[in-house]
TrEMBL record:
GO terms for biological process: carbohydrate metabolic process. The keyword Phosphoprotein does not apply. Signal peptide: none annotated. It comes from the Eukaryota. Keywords: Schiff base. SUPFAM superfamilies: Aldolase. The lineage of its organism: Eukaryota, Metazoa, Ecdysozoa, Nematoda, Chromadorea. This is Transaldolase, putative. The keyword Cell membrane does not apply. InterPro entries: Aldolase_TIM (IPR013785), TAL/FSA (IPR001585).
Length: 33
């Protein structure tokens, strides 16, 4: 998962922001993307 997140960050840093937004709006620490 870490590698996938790293690749996603390299491809588009915005993906990380979407993930953060998702976590904040769902109030969930456990997730699969």
């Amino acid at each position: 998962i870490a590698c996938a997140e790293a690749n996603a960050t390299l491809i588009s840093p915005f993906v990380g922001r979407i993930r953060d937004w998702y976590l904040k709006n769902t109030n969930s620490k456990d997730y699969n993307i």
